[in-house]
TrEMBL record:
<feature type="domain" description="Rhodanese">
    <location>
        <begin position="12"/>
        <end position="101"/>
    </location>
</feature>
<dbReference type="InterPro" id="IPR050229">
    <property type="entry name" value="GlpE_sulfurtransferase"/>
</dbReference>
<keyword id="KW-0808">Transferase</keyword>
<dbReference type="InterPro" id="IPR036873">
    <property type="entry name" value="Rhodanese-like_dom_sf"/>
</dbReference>
<protein>
    <submittedName>
        <fullName>Rhodanese-related sulfurtransferase</fullName>
    </submittedName>
</protein>
<dbReference type="Pfam" id="PF00581">
    <property type="entry name" value="Rhodanese"/>
</dbReference>
<dbReference type="GO" id="GO:0016740">
    <property type="term" value="F:transferase activity"/>
</dbReference>
<dbReference type="InterPro" id="IPR001763">
    <property type="entry name" value="Rhodanese-like_dom"/>
</dbReference>
């Protein structure tokens, strides 16, 4: 999957559609504000919920980039322009200090 389209956390355009494919507990611990939560195992059945409005590609994120890479491949194979967030949430929040929100206890996202 080396030719998989990807984007770094600092290159994500403001307002770009984001899909988080992590599990519920990971999502609750901390996620990108405005992201749509569709766990990878539910992506095929919830395909219609993928935000495709606007001119930007759909940015797909997981914890470190593996699950999101599989999701990006599937989305691109099924007609949705998607890019993988390189390094996942670890890159977003830990490496680059970009903001996250939490649905769970007030704990920072832990890689």
């Amino acid at each position: 999957m080396s030719d998989l389209p990807s984007i770094s956390a600092t290159e994500v355009p403001p307002g770009a559609p984001i899909v988080d494919v992590r599990e519920d507990d990971e999502w609750q611990a901390g996620h990108i504000n405005g992201a749509v939560h569709i766990p990878l195992g539910q992506l095929m059945e919830r395909y219609g919920e993928v935000p495709m409005d606007g001119d930007d590609d759909v940015v797909v994120v997981c914890r470190s980039g593996g699950r999101s890479a599989r999701a990006v491949q599937w989305l691109n194979d099924n007609g949705i322009d998607a890019v993988n967030l390189t390094g996942g949430m670890g890159s977003w929040s830990l490496d680059n200090g970009l903001p996250i929100v939490s649905d769970g206890p007030d704990e920072p996202y832990v890689k």
